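Appendix B, record 7
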Amino acid sequence: MQRIFSALIAFLCAGQLLAAEGTDSNIQPYFSFHSLGYSETAPIHQIVIDDIEGPYFDGGRHSFTHNLIESGAKYNGWKLAAIYRYDYSLEYSEDTAELIYGDRNDLTIEKNRQYEVDLELIHARTAGFKFGYEWSILPEFQLGIDLSYLEVSYFLNGYLEGEFVASNDSYSGQLFIDYAYTEDLLPLNRQVEEPDGWGYAMDLSWSWQMNESWYAKGAFIDLLSQLYIDQAPFTYATANSDRVSFDPDGRIDVKPLLSGREGYRKETLSLPKQISLDVYYRINVDFEMGIAWYRYGDVNFPSIINHYNFSEGSSLKTKFDFKSDALTIGASFPWFTISLTSDRLDYKKARTLGFDAGVYLAF
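Structure tokens (predicted):
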């Protein structure tokens, strides 16, 4: 791991020597905030605030949130910043979503049906610092690389899988769970020592002015990432159906018989990769149109973008995403940027919510 960091830092220093003449020498303190949440299953407010209790349910297979606070300074192409991250990614079967929603809302489940249970999750709260450099490989092409050192304050990593068949008065089947954690979520009252963890993440970004009319930019977020926990508490368990039945109202009465083992192990987490690509066409000096593509894990978000430049260094932006039907409205000024993303006017019903803001100064 130390060799990787040493090689990458040497690469950054080499870039500084090759491109020192093309950088801005001003010191630029900055602060940025990025937050994006997406759910195919229910409104984000209903999931986060109400623990999925509520009237809305859409099934689905993916939910995630990515949040980043960054505060630092840039100088001569270099960047150094303190960062805080909150990442939560869930992938699941539609049967799993239906069962969880039914349990939280005391709903009866369909009888004489086989349910496929499959859930994978990554949850991490981390903080650390980011070190990066941006340089011009060609006058029209810029490349940036960021390395983040992260310390883990909370994590959850694992899976749940199995199947069962619901009959008229009971069901049969088995569920398997294997997960590592900071805090045990199973009702076993296990007291664990809080583990220490650390890790890294690497991002790449680029921009290309193809000609006077065409412009493109892209980014690879968490292109490489690893979080290491040396003594991670874990639970591996099997829950069988011997103690599960239906109550008089048709709801599952769960008293599962758990068997398995607990302990401590080395755990490694990889954060979901994110990719973005924007391509713009300048219609005139004031107006640009473009297409964009964003990918989080295995989920793709194609969109269209409009930019209106109402003065030098200042613009308005609109963006419509076809996957989530979300609209982004934003404004950019020489020292300040802000944008808001939502697929509903009522934020409590929104399945997609995003907010970005940044302050950029120069001395």
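Remarks on this record: Confidence is low (pLDDT under 50) at residues 1-24. The longest strand covers residues 214-240.
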